[in-house]
Structures are given as structure tokens and as C-alpha cells.
């Protein structure tokens, strides 16, 4: 028997032993099947089904299933039908052999035999089999046996299922509603047909809501909650995007919402389905407010699962019913303190969605408090949401800067990469707050250098606005006397922690040079590169240092996470860079080896860029300069800068002087390697004149990395 077979498997030690047991048992079962008179047929087939469940072949038992279905014994019929449902399907020829047996059993006097036939037909019946047996099914539907009708409406997809509504047996109704839901979800064309029974559904639901105590179907004081939930789900499907159907159920939904006990879990299940239905159909505004208020009560429930589903539902409707959800803002914010991580995450998402211009200060206070104590896995999400809300609803630039600095101080290691350039762009544009910001960042730098993003912004601001810091006069914050040595001490501490680079200080040049030279052989390639570049500025190109390290211009934001700027301001008013048209691609996609020419002409000096694509990532740029004026130009130098991810190699120029009237030209070849295929456009490029007619191409895509420029 099956118990014996199970014991054999229980004591097996290896898979090889298991296969051996299977082979011996299957051989014995085959031998038993071949015997004409076998009293253990049902036991043998049961053992074979167990073998099938273990994943071994059992197809040789199909014909035995057919023979046992035709048996007059109920015990054999039961195992035979079970075997047919497991071993047969509509694609196998053997399934056709049981059609006549199913037809005979549908007319059997025993309702349990009829039930076996119905279950098997629903499980494996083909379209042809169902067509042949449709008269028998229709006859059973019209019979008075409620047990059989329940089996029918829960198993078989026949249009005559609507007949079940005339019989108020809860089991029949439940099976009918389940089937109609399935039909409507799989075939939207049936929606109009079933909307005709909407009045019947409404009446049945009203009877359940307003009926008295029914011991047979009552659960914790709620009359047949399972049927109520199914009907509400069907109403939601029928009323979706249909105004007429929605109007027909509005009053019913209001009755359910006001008459259902919310102190029991069963009642909350019915109320939750009611809320989902109200929010998914074209319901009245008052009814939607009632649904939101029910979700608000759910937020106060001790069951964390109920609180979770309430916030999930509120999150879905906060865009369409914002004011109604705002009434529960206090309760939602309190859920940020919940001990459950899932509830806390939902509360964070919903709180961020509730931030508006009218409540941004109070909501941000709560969110910043949450950020300081939230789990590590939520810090990045919380910081990103606070940044977005602050950018959208900031009441002032100072408040905006303070909020972002607070986040960087609290969770600087969890913010996104674009945070640093975005904050720098914000600070640059707030010129009246430069003194306040650099003082605040300097104090933050002295307090903590573990937050990398904060350190990057602080070092950049000190580098750009260090003179305001040394001046010690700031109306918007407490004045602090800072010396150049103090600033250098702070930056040297940062350098030793591999965080950033030197700053804008004019007097202690020798100390700066000494600090920079230390890192010329640093194992950190980034620091080594910056040190070599600055050493070049201090030595060979010292005459250009002041111009190169001028204060960055105001940065114009093109798109989130990307900024660019143009050389402007008092220091270069007399220069006025010759700009190439904004947005014109510098390196448009072209076939390999195709040459492009870009000319810029200013004050009689013409610079031509000839670009030739060598490969998908390689590009050769030939720079050619000529002088059309009447005077010779000496000490002429070409300079170029590219984004960090692009490798630049400038070969030796053909000379350093430009004769008058274009009698000779200076050429220089630049080789670019762009492994990440970063797009280069003219929006990143300015070309302007300087001392000795120097031409420089300066990228300001990442203002915090000015030291990455290559000067030859």
C-alpha cells in the first residue's frame, strides 16, 4: 500500500537507492495491473500516483484509470477519477475513452459520484467533451440539489451560471460570483452582459449587510463576510470606468461603509474591499472622502498589516485625492516611528508625497528628524526624496541650502552622485549667500570630514569663496576670525584623508606648493594627477595661475544632474569669449574617418578644429591657428580640457609664434580616447583670449574638479 511505499522511501540513503525502489515498485504495479481479478487495484493506482508526484514516469497507469472509472465501486471510481485528473489531459487520446463514463456518472443517483464526474470534467475536459456533456450540465443546474449546483457554479464555465442567482443558497452564490469574476477578468466582452445582473447583486449585498444574526454563515458578527468580499470585488470590476454602473452601487457602498463593524478583523476585511471598490469606480466625491477616512482609521489600528495596506492604498490615491489624504498627515507622520520596517518605508513614501508649498517647513522638519534615526537601508531614499521636495517647494534659497547641508551632514554617504554638482550650482546662483554658505561649510568641515559629499562641497566653496571666509565679515551668521593657516590646516587634514584638494589662498603660496608637491608621487592616482597639474601651474605656467584659478562663473542648469556655465564677470569683461552655437554637437555621429571643421575667429586670430574619428572610442583633433592682424603674436599656447572620463594626449605644437597676415600657422594634434562614449557638445566649451593671446578650451561640466584640467 501507499504507507508501505512511503516507508521504503523514508529509509533510502541515496538517489541511486531511490531509483532502485521506484523500479521495483513500478514492476510490481505493472504485474498487478495485468491480473484480471485484482482486489488491490485502487491501492496499486494510489502508489503509482505517489510515484508520479515524485517526478517519475507513470503513464502506463492511464488505461487503469479508465477501467477504474467504469467500476461500479465508489472507492475505485474515486481513485480512478483522481488518476485521470493527474495523468490525463485533453490532448491525450485516452481522455476520450472516459467521456461516456462521465456522462453515465452525471446521471448517477449518488450525488458524490456526480461530484467526482463534475470535478474531473472541469479539470481536464476538452471543448468537444464539454459540448457533448452540456445537456447533462444544464439538467443538473435545473435540479434542486444544492450540493451539485454549488459544484457546478464553482467548477464549470457555462453561461447558464446566471441561473444560480435565483437560488439564495450562499454556497451557490459564492461559486457563481467567483466564476463571473474570472470570466470578466479574462474576457472584457462579457462585462456588459453581467452588468445586467447588477441590481440582483446590489439586492443580495443589501440583504447581507442589513440582515440579522445567521448562525450558519455568521463570522464574528458579520453575515457571510466571504460572500460580501466576493460581491464587492465583482462590483469593482463592473463599475470600473462605467458611470452608470457606478451610480447604481453608490448608495450600497455608503451603507456598507457605515454599517460594518470596524472593531473586528472580519469587518476590516469587508471595509477594505469597500474602500478599494469606491476608489476604483466613478464614485461621488463624498463617498471617496468616506473611503479615505476609513483608511485613516486603519492607520490607528494595532495590527501592522492593516496599517501597511492602508498606507499602500493612500499612496495610490494621493495624487487624485490629495486634500482628503492631507487630513491624515499627522497620523501618517507618526507612522514614521513605527517599529516595522515595511510600515516605516510606506510612511516615508507617503510623507514625501504629501509635501506641498503650504506645509514644506513643518513636513521637512519631521523628515529631517526621521533621517537622523532611520535605518541605513532607508537613508538614500529619504535623502533623495528630501532633495526633490526642497527643490520643488523651497520658500527661499537660504532655506534650500540649509536643508541640503543638513542632509549632507546627516547622511552624506548615502546621497546620489549628482547631489554635489546640483548643490554647487545652487550655491553659485545665490550670490548674496556666498559668505554665509562658506562660513557654514567651513564649520561643518572642522566638525566632521567623514561625509564625503559634504567635504567635496565644502572644499569647492572654500576654494571659490575663501576670500569671503578670510574677511571674517558676514551679516547672516556669527562672525568667526579665520586665518589662512587655519584653512590650510583644515584642507591638509582633508588631503590626508583622501577627500579633496587645495583652495583659493593668495599669500601662503609656499605652504600650498609644499603641500601639493607631497602628493606628486601619491599612490592615489587621482591625487597624484591633481598634484602634478598644480605643480605645473606653480612652476612652468606660474604666469597663468591667476587666470586659470579665477572664480567660477554662475552655472546654468540644463537638466537634472548636469550643469554648465560660460566665462563671465568683471575679471574678463574685456575678453568676451567667442562662443560656438549652444547645443551644436561637437562630435556628431558620423562614419569612421570622416573629417569635420569648426572655426572660431576673434581679434584676428582664427582657430580651426579638424576632427577625425579613428574608432568607436578614439578621435584625433588637429588644432590650427593663424593670425590675420598686422602684428606678430609670440608665446602662443593652446590649452584643452576634457571631462574626467575622457583621456587627453596633446602632442608637441609646431611652434609658439604666429606671424602677421597669416604667413604661417601653428598646428597641434590632440588625441582623445573616450572609452565611456561620453557625449561632447559645444555647450561644454568656451574659447577665449588671454595674456599673450592664449587660447583655452575650458570645460565647466563638473566645477568641483577644476584641477583636472591639463595644462601643457
TrEMBL record:
The family database entries (SMART domains) matched by this protein are listed as:
Alpha_adaptinC2
One Pfam family hit: Alpha_adaptinC2
Gene3D superfamilies registered for this protein in UniProt: 2.60.40.1230, Leucine-rich Repeat Variant
GO BP terms: namely: intracellular protein transport; vesicle-mediated transport
Instruction: Name the PROSITE patterns on file.
Output: GAE
Cite the InterPro entries for this sequence: Adaptor_Complx_Large_Subunit, AP1_complex_gsu, ARM-like, ARM-type_fold, Clathrin/coatomer_adapt-like_N, Clathrin_a/b/g-adaptin_app_Ig, Clathrin_app_Ig-like_sf, GAE_dom
Give me the Gene Ontology terms describing cellular component: AP-1 adaptor complex
Domain GAE, by residue range, is 592-710
Q: Which UniProt keywords apply?
A: Cytoplasmic vesicle, Golgi apparatus, Membrane, Protein transport, Transport
**Membrane topology for this entry?**
Peripheral membrane protein
What family is it from?
Belongs to the adaptor complexes large subunit family.
| PANTHER family membership | ADAPTIN, ALPHA/GAMMA/EPSILON
| Name the UniProt record assigns to this protein | AP-1 complex subunit gamma
The organism of origin for this protein:
Sander lucioperca
The record lists the lineage as:
Eukaryota, Metazoa, Chordata, Craniata, Vertebrata
